[in-house]
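Fold it.
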Amino acid sequence: MFGRVNFYLIFTTLLALVLSGCAQPSEPAPVTRLYKGKSIHDFERASLAARHYEVEAGDTLYSIAFRANVDVREVAAWNQIPAPYTIVPGQKINLQAPVAKPAQSIASKPKKEYVGKQNKSKAVTVKQQAQAKPAVSATNKAPVLSNRSEPALSASKDIRWQWPTPAKVIREFSTAEAGNKGIDFAGSEGDPVYAAASGKVVYAGNALKGYGQLIILKHNDDYITAYAHNQKLLVKEQQWVNKGDEIAAMGDTDAERVKLHFQVRFRGKSVNPRHYLPRGTQ
């Protein structure tokens, strides 16, 4: 009997301890963000100066071309990569046009040719024939036509700037490492977005993570502007636009709200747009 009582007491005591342990609230497991993928914010235009680049996880041909300051179609052509420009980690990408090999000089004796049936015995060389031809005056040469249909890009001092939208500024430019690299404007979906200066469309698409529907205009070799999070793009790559042309409709692609994120970059580095835009209008 004593043994049964002891067994009963031990069992009930252990059961009470187990139930007591189960009833105690446990601390929730900490939640950490395990993935921090690359975005366009990690990159600077013209930050790749090497002739070759090895693809890393998360890279796209668009982001590589952006960092090399080269048209993505040129990079695709140099590397024989067809649309939609699929690349894989470890792949070697040429970032400059292949260097053409110089033609080999072949030394040979002047070729002899016979002119006419009556002069079969008289040989003349190709060199002598060339000397016998009348010289062509440089003024008689056919003019070389330029393929450019747009005006020449302005010098930096000649760029005329305007605000890309009359909407209210909701976030200013910041020089902090994780700060805003441009100016953010509020607005309604479909509001017009204007070219801040005349230039050429060098990018129009949504392949750059974090920017949504994006347009990049090149104004000269020093300055570009970027217009992000648009609902609709109204221009195409290689198209020339004038200052004040409507280039997009405002939207919220890859953004938490409808807004325009606007950047000015000088030689690839983000600068405060307020240093260039007209004063007193915003």
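The first strand starts at residue 52 and ends at 54.
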